Amino acid sequence: MATPASRLRFLIDENVQRSVTRWLDARGHEVHESRDVAGSQARDAVLDWLASTEGLTIVTYDTDFRFAVRRMAPQGTQKKMRAHASILWLGIPEPRALERIIQCMEIVEHQYAYARDVGVRVERCEVQAERVVTRLLVPPRGQQSSSTRNEER
């Protein structure tokens, strides 16, 4: 069960099976399915805007989610776009997704809590077959740079 300090807020992309949604909800996280809040077949840019506005982390299998959002931005505004939503990317085959989320959710929760505690933002957390890779956005002197943390389980 997620503690209040590790409770996360998720926007679940429609390509993620409902068993993952139900498990995250049962664990105590706030979950919203994209099909319920943005409609079926919502564009990535809409999901990114909704998640970043509401402070939600997008859970998806889409490997090119960020690039698709940038491609859909109006010409000339790509570099001026505000910060994107955080992404929890599932880099594993769908049949193993729930099993793998169950195995490593404590690591994911820890990474998000760590980022919150030190005042940085998780840009992307990748749940892979053998490890969890987290990319943090660290804002030094008004600019954003990034660092990566790896944990295996």
Judging from the principal axes of the Cα atoms, what is the shape?
globular
Q: Gyration radius, to the nearest Å?
A: 15 Å
Q: Count up the domains.
A: 1
Placed side by side, the strands forming the largest sheet appear as 2-1-3-4-5-6-7
Classification by helices and strands = alpha/beta
Low-confidence spans: pLDDT under 50, at least 5 residues? 77-82
The number of helices is: 5
Largest sheet: 7 strands, mixed
Strand-residue fraction? 25-35%
Characteristics:
single chain, 153 residues, alpha/beta, 7-stranded mixed beta sheet, 5 helices, 27% strand
Quick structural summary:
It contains 5 helices and 7 strands.
Description:
This protein is of the alpha/beta class. It has one domain (9-152). Helices cover 35% and strands 27% of the residues. It is built from 5 helices and 7 strands. It has helices spanning 18-26, 34-37, 44-54, 65-72, 97-118, and strands at residues 9-12, 30-33, 57-60, 86-91, 121-128, 131-138, 145-152. A 7-stranded mixed sheet has the order 2-1-3-4-5-6-7, sandwiched between helices. Strand 6 (131-138) and strand 7 form a beta hairpin. The radius of gyration is 15 Å and the shape is globular. The model is unreliable at 77-82 (pLDDT under 50).
